[in-house]
Amino acid sequence: MKNAKKLKVKVKNLNHFLKLVNWYTILLLDLVYHKYTMVYKAVSTKLTEEEHTKFLEFCNKKGIFPFAVIKESILKTIE
Questions:
Q1: What pLDDT, in 10s, does the model give residues 25-68?
Q2: DSSP per residue over 4-32, as a string?
Q3: Domain segments of the chain: what residues?
């Protein structure tokens, strides 16, 4: 995992920490399940360096993964 990027998340309190742990556990289980049961297709876009920086800052502030924001946005748009 040389190219893996770390997601910085600020924990506000114990309750927030427990929610994050629960969210990451569900995400991990979901990723493992889907890795062996589904076929995924990739979608990409090009962003300027400034747009990319703003997007990552937004994700870090919200404590969410960039892929989750992109996926949710796409699904909301097409439904």
A1: 777 777 776 666 667 788 888 999 999 999 999 999 999 999 89
A2: PPPPP----SHHHHHHHHHHHHHHHHHHH
A3: 9-39, 41-79
